[in-house]
Amino acid sequence: MLHLTAGRVAGLLSRRGVAAFSTSGVKMASHGGVTEQTDMSVPLYCDRLDTPLPDRPYKDTLSAADKSLKQKEKGPWNSLSKEEKLALYRIMFNETYAEMKKPTGEWKTVVGGIFFFIGFTGLVVLWQRYYVYPPHPRTLDDEWQAMQVKRMLDMRVNPVEGFSAKWDYEKGQWK
Amino acid sequence: MKSTMSLVKPAMRGLLAKRLRFHLPIAFGLALVAAVAFKFTVTEPRKQAYADFYKHYDSMKEFSAMREAGVFESVRPTGK
């Protein structure tokens, strides 16, 4: 890899088909083989919310009926019927804004996936609890905790507003 | 009167000043309210709690109790 000379690189490129580099084309499928390439050097159509007027009309090749409709469009528009106006729109555009903005329901997949993986993680954590965690330190036993509480009360921890303030020293019980 | 074709020119300047004129007094007021509320719900009760605690506090009695419980290292409980 380190000693790849320029000559070797040119050889590799030529074998992969320099045609792909000479025209301004783009492979549509990525894995080897010759696939249909869109010519990126001419204006393209796109359905985008932020581009209301794409670079070219949607229908490039017009049928005879479409061509006659386009001729009629050059006259007064009041003479066009509603269906003709819609047909003209569909010649220029693929989807309407309403169709582009249509909700996809993708969020259900996303939320479902989130819950699924949270659930799976829960199972993993449960398995860890039984197979990975070391034994508890003895300071978490109930006995030890009781001894700890007694010592804290003996030391009068936070006697004004906090811990020991809640203990009744005369009666020996919590207030 | 304006013709039906032209619109009112929107405000082009002083937008931040207008917003501040409205929001700053509110901000100061809320901050003041928060401070006063904290004073009367937290600091005054706390001062009172400390005053009450120390009004009848016998430090020698508390010390003896702690000593007997065995929490000190400098003095052992009276007995040993």
TrEMBL record, chain A:
Family: Belongs to the cytochrome c oxidase IV family.
Classification via InterPro entries: Cyt_c_oxidase_su4, Cyt_c_oxidase_su4_fam, Cyt_c_oxidase_su4_sf
CDD domains on file: Cyt_c_Oxidase_IV
UniProtKB keywords: Membrane, Mitochondrion, Mitochondrion inner membrane, Transmembrane, Transmembrane helix
Domain of life: Eukaryota
Function: Component of the cytochrome c oxidase, the last enzyme in the mitochondrial electron transport chain which drives oxidative phosphorylation.
Annotated source species: Cyprinus carpio carpio
SUPFAM superfamilies noted in UniProt: Mitochondrial cytochrome c oxidase subunit IV
GO BP term, example: mitochondrial electron transport, cytochrome c to oxygen
Location in or out of the cell: Mitochondrion inner membrane
Annotated protein name in UniProt: Cytochrome c oxidase subunit 4
Pathway(s) annotated for this protein in UniProt: Energy metabolism; oxidative phosphorylation
GO cellular component labels: mitochondrial inner membrane; respiratory chain complex IV
Major location (coarse): mitochondrion
Pfam families for this protein: COX4
Topological relation to the membrane, as annotated: Single-pass membrane protein
TM ranges: 110-130
Subunit structure: Component of the cytochrome c oxidase (complex IV, CIV), a multisubunit enzyme composed of 14 subunits. The complex is composed of a catalytic core of 3 subunits MT-CO1, MT-CO2 and MT-CO3, encoded in the mitochondrial DNA, and 11 supernumerary subunits COX4I, COX5A, COX5B, COX6A, COX6B, COX6C, COX7A, COX7B, COX7C, COX8 and NDUFA4, which are encoded in the nuclear genome.
From TrEMBL, chain B:
Membrane topology, record value: Single-pass membrane protein
Main location: mitochondrion
Pfam family, one: COX6C
Locations listed in the record: Mitochondrion inner membrane
Listed SUPFAM superfamilies: Mitochondrial cytochrome c oxidase subunit VIc
Keyword Mitochondrion: yes
CDD domains xref list: CcO_VIc
Pathway(s) this gene product operates in, as recorded in its UniProt entry: Energy metabolism; oxidative phosphorylation
Subunit comment: Component of the cytochrome c oxidase (complex IV, CIV), a multisubunit enzyme composed of 14 subunits. The complex is composed of a catalytic core of 3 subunits MT-CO1, MT-CO2 and MT-CO3, encoded in the mitochondrial DNA, and 11 supernumerary subunits COX4I, COX5A, COX5B, COX6A, COX6B, COX6C, COX7A, COX7B, COX7C, COX8 and NDUFA4, which are encoded in the nuclear genome.
Family, as annotated: Belongs to the cytochrome c oxidase subunit 6c family.
Role noted for this protein: Component of the cytochrome c oxidase, the last enzyme in the mitochondrial electron transport chain which drives oxidative phosphorylation. The respiratory chain contains 3 multisubunit complexes succinate dehydrogenase (complex II, CII), ubiquinol-cytochrome c oxidoreductase (cytochrome b-c1 complex, complex III, CIII) and cytochrome c oxidase (complex IV, CIV), that cooperate to transfer electrons derived from NADH and succinate to molecular oxygen, creating an electrochemical gradient over the inner membrane that drives transmembrane transport and the ATP synthase.
Name recorded for this polypeptide: Cytochrome c oxidase subunit 6C
Organism: Cyprinus carpio carpio
